[in-house]
Amino acid sequence: MSSPSGRSPTLIRLSVSEPVSLQDRRFKEKQMPVIRVDWLSGRSQEQKKEVASVFTRELARIAKCGPDDVQIVFMDVERKNWSVGGVFAEDPTLEK
Asked: Which part of the chain is the 4-oxalocrotonate tautomerase-like domain (predicted)?
């Protein structure tokens, strides 16, 4: 399944939550920026590292927090579990 740019669809959600950590009490009174990236499976670990580096740097700059405060969760979704407009990404009739 392609987007108008010809790339696989990527949905990025940004939320702010307070993590629960029993071992690191410094989180107790801080709101930690959490980025969740939902995208189709197949990205390399190197791609994820680059995304994590850029997102961490820029969110820390914009949110005026430390890079250590930024958390990122990558959710790799199989094509059979991704649907847009009722059509699944694994549909063989779709252009790749």
From this structure: 33-88
Token readout for 9 is 């669809």
Would you report the helix, strand and coil content of the chain in percent, each value rounded to 5? Answer: 30, 30, 40
The Cα–Cα gap between 92 and 67 comes to: 42
Domains and CATH numbers, the chain: 34-81 (3.30.429.10)
Q: What is the pTM of this model?
A: 0.68
pLDDT at 95: 64
Taking the C-alpha atoms of 81, 84, 87 and 92 in order, what is their torsion angle to the nearest 10 degrees? Answer: -70
SS3 state of residue 54: helix
DSSP 77: E
Q: What is the pLDDT of residues 69-96, one digit of tens each?
A: 888 999 999 989 988 889 888 887 776 5
